[in-house]
Amino acid sequence: SLPSYMETYKKLFDKAKVTNESQMVNEFHKELKPKGVELASYAVDLEAYVSNLADQVFKDSQKMIDRSVITFIILVVVTTVIICIVSYIISKLIVAPLQTVSRMMERAKEGDLTVHGEYNAKDELGVLVSDFNEMIAGLRTNMQEVENNIQLLFQHADGVVSASEVSSGAAKKITIDIEEVANGAEGQMQAMEQTAGAMEELTQGMQSIVNTSSSVNELSAQSALDAESGNKLMKQMIQQMDTI
């Protein structure tokens, strides 16, 4: 070993101080040279061992690097798959219902009051769809009331026309009766009775016109209120859709 060689070399050096040159050479060949050869062989073996150890360390390091790369690739692939799955779930749970609500609001904005949302979840989007359905139902009811009032208005208008025709006929009859009274005294009493009857019919017809006109005015006022309410509700709906 190296310590043994150095110890032998030191002893030989100390001995050389008190011996002559030939004795020192003999001692060198006898003791130090074999040790040097042994030490050189040991150095070669040590170099080979260190080289093999370095190769083994390099191979082990390369294996660790390869395993780390494989582990990293697996983690990247797994993370990508998880992200894709989460994105798909989010798309189904949030994006698709939002697109459906947007299409319903667009249809309602164009005047289609038959739309109805089917999203029944308890989250914010479900509350929005529920409020939208209630708003559309209220607007649909309001518009139906306006339509019914308009139909009643038309019916009463027809009644006014009929009453006017009756009154016009009664007025013509009064005119004829008056002419008959003026043209002959013989039928004066009968003509007066007929005139009185015609006047009564005229009075009834005028009263019917007044009553019908009052109903028409009330219906017109109610229709105006319903139309105004429907207009306000439609504006609110459009504002909510624009806000969304």
Describe this structure in words.
With 244 residues, this protein is mostly helical. The protein folds into 2 domains: 2-101; 113-243, Four Helix Bundle (Hemerythrin (Met), subunit A) (Up-down Bundle), CATH 1.20.120. Helices cover 90% and strands 0% of the residues. It has helices at 2-16, 21-109, 124-183, 188-243. Helix 1 (2-16) runs antiparallel to helix 2 (21-109) and helix 3 packs antiparallel against helix 4. It is rod-shaped and about 195 Å long. The model has no long low-confidence stretch (mean pLDDT 70).
Task: Compile the SSE list and pairings.
Elements: H1 2-16, H2 21-109, H3 124-183, H4 188-243
Cα-based radius of gyration, to the nearest Å: 59 Å
Low-confidence stretches: none
Strand content: under 5%
Distance between the termini: 88 Å
Major sheet characteristics = none
The helix content, as a percent range, equals over 70%
Structural class: mainly alpha
Quaternary assembly: single chain
Q: CATH fold name of the largest domain, please?
A: Four Helix Bundle (Hemerythrin (Met), subunit A)
Rough shape?
Answer: rod-shaped
At a glance:
With 244 residues, this protein is mostly helical.
